[in-house]
Fold this sequence. Notes:
Elements: H1 3-11, H2 14-26, H3 29-36, H4 40-54, E1 59-62, E2 65-68, H5 70-96, E3 102-108, H6 110-115, H7 117-127, E4 131-137, H8 140-149, E5 154-158, H9 159-163, E6 170-184, E7 205-207, H10 213-224, E8 231-234, H11 238-246, E9 252-255, H12 256-261, E10 268-272, E11 279-286, H13 294-303
Parallel strand pairs: 3-4, 3-5, 7-8
Antiparallel strand pairs: 1-2, 5-11, 6-9, 6-10, 6-11
Helix pairs in contact: 2-3, 2-4, 2-5, 3-4
Amino acid sequence: MKPSERNFARRIDLTSLQLFVAVYELGSIGKAAEREFIAASAVSKRLSDLETLLQTTLLYRHARGVDLTPAGESLLHHARSVLFSLDRMQGELSEYADGVRGHVRVHASISAIVQFLPEDLGAFVRAHGGIKIDLEEHLSSEIVRAVQEGAADLGLCNAAAAESAGEALQTRAYRRDRLVLIVPRGHALAGRGAVPYEASLAFDQVGLPSNSSIHLATRSAAAQLGHAIKLRIQVTGLDAMCRMIHNGLGIGVMPQRAFELMHGVGDLEHVPLSDAWAERQIRMVARDFSTLPVTARLLVEHLAPPPETIDEPQSTDQALTV
Length: 322
């Protein structure tokens, strides 16, 4: 950190940031002062001092209250991020007094969560009872961004999403899965051996969100074949997809293991896809595995697949760039 940056960090006042956010939320200095139990003149003084420190105007003041300037909009984003991080820090540190010996923040795709993580994380927690895992489900593209920005220590996402990262990341193998077609029993494609994805394009489809890795893969495959997907409905979860397919709204694509684990969700069956892209890798992603906290490194070691299941070079720490 440069001397000027250290000086700025020392001069910025967290109370002033809290008051700035309160003024924005309530639309006036007077209302913010009432909520925060402080004199309106004191709030106004702190905001003026903040503008002097930042050498820019943050608020447009008028008879009805205040509005943010473009600089104020930017500060609002950063102020909320700082205050959220402080709240999270307080929450995590307070848990150490209750016996927690470490936290690992993990963002994972629905494919990883449904297929593999319950057993893997359950075994880890049983072996390391003092370590708390904060797990959030996100789309693969969002996971990459969260790891890049430091919102997550570790990400588990589709390999294609990791490789599309615009900034350097490191990756390690986690698991493989295979995408299959899900169809109602008695469907024209039911009971067949492996079929190309092209065979599904004649039928209505039940899809996942537009920026999910499965939707992106199927859309790309259809485009290469010169076809459009007959997308009838999009859902956010695999169980919802199965229920829609069971009720005749189309067919869909999901990981085979995920389908097998969802017993009884409709009278359905899966049909293997013969396309090469249907065989996928789920990767662990971090900014730098060697600099992760000890607790996070323990989790990475626990999640690493047995060597005999990896058909790729073992030196898997690698910078991923476009």
